[in-house]
Amino acid sequence: MAQNLEVHVTAGSRDEAEKVVQAAVNERLAACAQISGPITSTYWWQGKLEKDEEFFIAMKTTDERLDALIASVKANHSYDTPEIVAVPIVGGLGEYLTWIKEETAAPSSDG
In 13-45, which positions are buried (b, 16+ CB within 10 angstroms) versus exposed (e)? Predict the structure, then answer.
């Protein structure tokens, strides 16, 4: 049975975050997504300490759809190495967890 996941992504602008989210949800790679921000990110990049304003994205999906979701994020993102981190959802409202699985189910090859 598929494991539910929350996938975290950061984007450099609200427009880019919207582009990432629209593609993921439209393709049913994520059941839903939230955009928060702006946030301040501090990180090392190419040997230099950086500090930037970004937007945080949280998407709900399953492990079965993760590879396709990662590919979609990379295709719609401007960063060379975007933050894409998946964490397991270990509990929650049963109906909501079932809804995630139903909304991200891969299309049947029977049709």
Answer: eeebbbbbbebbbeebbbbbbebebeeebeeee
The type of residue at 94 is G
Bridge partners for 4 per DSSP: 62
Question: Residue 51 has which token pair?
Answer: 């500090």
Domains of the chain and CATH, by start: 4-103 (3.30.70.120)
pTM for the whole thing?
0.92
pLDDT digits (tens, 9 = 90+) for 58-99: 999 999 999 999 999 999 999 999 999 999 999 999 999 999
Instruction: Count CB atoms within 10 A of the CB of residue 57.
Output: 26
Residue whose structure tokens are 């949800």: 25
**HSE-CB for 33 with a 13 A CA cutoff:** 26
Kindly state the percentage of the chain with pLDDT values over 70: 96
